[in-house]
């Protein structure tokens, strides 16, 4: 009987590892646009320069939406429905929820969820106007998630949103709306996970009344009439192939992420024929993935592309693309950069995001659900987070203050900030999500002078309190900020000191701007017509604030002067 311990292993074959001198990459035979950028990290790193619009934009919105939202049960729904015992908290109920709502995954698997996603109330123009009002200057559109389903009229993936479900070009709708608002548009590709991610769909229950009955990924449909075969679809294009024979399970393994990090080669005890078959599949899959990404680039001319990558980049030989080291990622990035040069008269306006790299000069970095511990200036980066779950879940907790606070935490350390406010399966915001975006817009209308086009100052902040890692929820909303917690940005010679809490006594003391920090010549409170009084002392810049705070959540003091440099106190 197949063991449930196989489920979180990552399931691939030629064990990859991170090393200082990576092995040569398999060349994926997909042509790219001509130009100076070649499909290797050295060429990308030597020539890439971050476009100016990125620094100015600062705030983005993540459009993390797709058919997995139909389950209304949060992230990774397409995987957890096949995992009755080994899903991570808080996803342990997904299998049971799916049973109650739709039936057993041997009869109603994820492929059967796809037609249920209809996006019947989706209005991209209305939503994009709200995102723009909230302060976002770029959006990240989901192109494909780990479920391997393309959200555009894909030439190379027949399992797509134009053919199934909403019968609409979702990326096309987002792109048109973003262009109308003058916002930068990027596309996210998470499909490298799909090389192994669906392995649970090839298994079966270990116990209960359906014990041993194969889930839909493992079933044979010859001679049976199916809706998807009527559309000319092949399950291999969605689920991949069964790779279970490639896995060796540690005897001590119980549960959790450690199961993804196998020790030693995964190929011992496997017939050579199986190894070749599975490697051939991996090369086939990486080639198809490359064609899909290039197709999206050609159709939508994005300002950036994004790879999830799980701490690495797609098909690097480890992490999400374990087992196959290929040039797929630098190949599609080179295609994007060359097409951008051609479109913009020889000027590079595009960029690429990963969670890992071989040459940090070549790309920007995603930092998920947290911010770095210190100012990070060595390459462009963004902190990204989901308000609640990445995919929609009923009962999402909303709090506008925690979004503003985390945004300031990221920007003060020289990053950008992207927030996902989940959309329902129909394509609507909850009232709490809409209110959060409106609150962001009201806050930005007052404080944008210290946000757009800003940089980190000499120090990122004062105070001891930082927000807990993780998706935004009750724990993050309860972060105990006090009047001593201050964050900084700078622009045009001015320093902006952000008060994370309003002082009860009406007095802010900014230690980093005391005597020795340069000569302060002016202090104003953004959004307030009232003058403030202030003085530089050995204790810091002491500012007497007006009685009534302008707005809510956090407050910005604009400090001007000559050569303002932080006083570092030990």
How would you describe the overall organization of this protein?
The protein is an alpha/beta fold and 570 residues long. It folds into 2 domains: 4-368, Alpha-Beta Barrel (TIM Barrel), CATH 3.20.20; 461-562, Golgi alpha-mannosidase II (Immunoglobulin-like). 24% of the residues lie in helices and 15% in strands. It has 14 helices and 16 strands. It has helices at 41-47, 52-57, 77-80, 94-101, 110-113, 124-133, 170-181, 227-230, 236-239, 272-300, 328-343, 400-411, 431-447, 474-477; strands at residues 59-63, 138-144, 184-189, 304-307, 351-354, 364-368, 381-386, 416-420, 461-462, 486-491, 494-499, 507-510, 519-525, 533-536, 541-544, 555-562. It has an 8-stranded parallel beta barrel, surrounded by 4 helices. It is globular. The termini are far apart.
Structure summary:
This protein is of the alpha/beta class and 570 residues long. It folds into 2 domains: 4-368, TIM Barrel, CATH 3.20.20.80; 461-562, Golgi alpha-mannosidase II (Immunoglobulin-like, Sandwich). It has helices spanning 41-47, 52-57, 77-80, 94-101, 110-113, 124-133, 170-181, 227-230, 236-239, 272-300, 328-343, 400-411, 431-447, 474-477, and strands at residues 59-63, 138-144, 184-189, 304-307, 351-354, 364-368, 381-386, 416-420, 461-462, 486-491, 494-499, 507-510, 519-525, 533-536, 541-544, 555-562.
